[in-house]
């Protein structure tokens, strides 16, 4: 049995009931097969892949908090410090009832390669909790965040592990967590990113993941003789990534006609009204039915359905495995020519293969959504030098980073004879730098 197959088997056997983690490992190791085969003896002797798929450290802790009626609730908190070969652990905190150790490990594993692709000195980590922020009062959110940070603060720091936002964790939650960290540790330092602008945050961090997704998509299309100008775009999700992806797509001349949340989706034939979407989601924290009620050109549908709308470019920006084989077939049949992942692993492996086999340009999340964490790293730089850069300065750095990422994965795919396979390109380019650093640092 090949070394890659052996390690995939071991991951499945040793990490039962973690299907998302198995999926992420399988996807990465399958595309590293060519690289591993060229170095098989040495990698095997050094147990390189075993070290790559086993987190350096993982924490699981109790998070008790009191609701507005005096009822005590207990959630589970996680932080997985996956790989620190190229820098301090860096990665978001997900607050969603579906969170479990396997989901945090899949996200942490992806983060290693994503962070490497940014070209900035950040290792891979991820955390979160099965806490559900929906329908909670501000005081309940604060109570949860303070309790969560009371435990998490023992394991993080500006030079060791720097968390940030992800699903369910935005500016409000980061603010409460930062306050509690400072209070307990007595340190005013850049321990979290995605902070508010009045206390060490960076301009463009809010927009960064969505904007970065479009900068990379734009470059990928240009290099393949296509354009966003006049293109019809389908976006899923209605959170941080989806909103700013929609905004930048429109700025680049595309028409975005859909968005979605966990209960339903919108088809807006006149194009999504971003100001209204922000009002509904960022200010009122309401459902998409409110968007439809305020916008005559919009249809609201219950359930899932964004990918049934004919589009040129599809941008899944909600959550993992939201675009399956049936959706991929519909997109291809409707003439879609590019899919770029704003979310982490939103496309199933079968759907990804189908899209690639049918000549669709496919940009994987670990490259396409790296603008968020890249701008987090720029926030860390600003915190270290105790300065704040202008919007234009951060935005132009972000754009450069995304264009460079695209060319790095394009080059890596070409070097291994897989031109146009950006999934393989991203995994190989991300892996090369991490492996170089791991080898230089000995068996740790
Ligand atoms: P938000 O919490 O801001 O928004 C998430 C959106 O996705 C919401 O519209 C939410 O709907 C929807 N959603 C979440 N879970 C599900 C589900 N199980 N089924 C259907 N819809 C769902 O999160 P972000 O926009 O920050 O994150 C979106 C994706 O992008 C995630 O995969 C995240 O890991 C990834 N990402 C985020 C980055 C960032 O900087 N924020 C950086 C890189 C990647 P509802 O409100 O109804 O739950
Ligand atoms: O998945 C991701 O890259 C994020 N949620 C952002 C992480 C970060 O540290 O900014």
TrEMBL record:
GO terms for cellular component: cytosol. Substrate binds at residues 90, 111, 114, 165, 376. The record marks 166 as: Important for catalysis. PROSITE patterns: GLFV_DEHYDROGENASE. Residues 202-442 form the Glutamate/phenylalanine/leucine/valine/L-tryptophan dehydrogenase C-terminal domain. Pfam families: ELFV_dehydrog, ELFV_dehydrog_N. NAD(+) binds at residues 209, 240. One of its GO terms (biological process) is glutamate biosynthetic process. Transmembrane segments: none annotated. The active site is at 126 (proton donor). SUPFAM superfamilies: Aminoacid dehydrogenase-like, N-terminal domain, NAD(P)-binding Rossmann-fold domains. One of its GO terms (molecular function) is glutamate dehydrogenase (NADP+) activity. It comes from the Bacteria. Keywords: NAD, Nucleotide-binding, Oxidoreductase. InterPro entries: Aminoacid_DH-like_N_sf, Glu/Leu/Phe/Val/Trp_DH, Glu/Leu/Phe/Val/Trp_DH_C, Glu/Leu/Phe/Val/Trp_DH_dimer, Glu/Leu/Phe/Val_DH_AS, Glu_DH, Glu_Leu_Phe_Val_DH, NAD(P)-bd_dom_sf. The keyword Nucleotide-binding applies. Homohexamer. Belongs to the Glu/Leu/Phe/Val dehydrogenases family. NCBIfam families: PRK09414.1 (NF006929). This is Glutamate dehydrogenase. It comes from Candidatus Anaerostipes avistercoris. The gene is gdhA.
